[in-house]
Amino acid sequence: MRRFGPFALGVIELIALVMVANWVGLGWALLLLLGTSVLGIALLRIEGLRAWQELRSAAADGRFPQDEPESVPASSARMADTGARILAGVLLTFPGFLTDLIGLVLLIPPIRRGVGRRMAASAFRTFPGRRTPGAAGPGRSGAGGTGGVQHGVVIEGEVVDTDPPRDGKK
């Protein structure tokens, strides 16, 4: 079924375009498609800038959700809401009345919050591991300088230095 999903969506969008064009005229139908695409692009730009500014201010202040356990629910809800708005913008950008309708419905706050929660839950199921505050992140090395990769095997040993000292004497 996944293989034919995009094809089926295209057929449904084409049928919807023909129906709307018969109802309001082809020119108005194309103008509606263009208008919703412009609305989607504007929404993507606004939400993308907002998300980028929040990320920059959090990084500048040195606050991250994994460092502040009490702020995790609020920041997760905000990220989920932003994700749902971005999804709505993407759907509005695609030409087609069905995707536009779904994108517009996603802009209704209670629906957007519900979809955002489902998206966040899906993301947490897909990426279940969380970093602990001491774990390695970008630019930091973790245990043993492995760049954040931790292995379960520990090999004990000792270092034997067989080279003569380099103090200028041979």
UniProtKB/TrEMBL annotation:
Q: Where, by residue number, does the polypeptide cross the bilayer?
A: 7-34, 86-108
- Alphabetical list of InterPro entries matching this protein: FxsA
Q: Where are the compositionally biased (Gly residues) regions?
A: 136-150
Q: Where is this region: Disordered?
A: 127-170
Record key words, sorted? Membrane, Transmembrane, Transmembrane helix
A GO cellular component annotated for this chain's UniProt record is:
membrane
Spell out the Pfam families in the cross-references: FxsA
Q: What is this protein called?
A: UPF0716 protein FxsA
Q: What organism is listed for this UniProt entry?
A: Jiangella alkaliphila
Lineage of the organism: Bacteria, Bacillati, Actinomycetota, Actinomycetes, Jiangellales
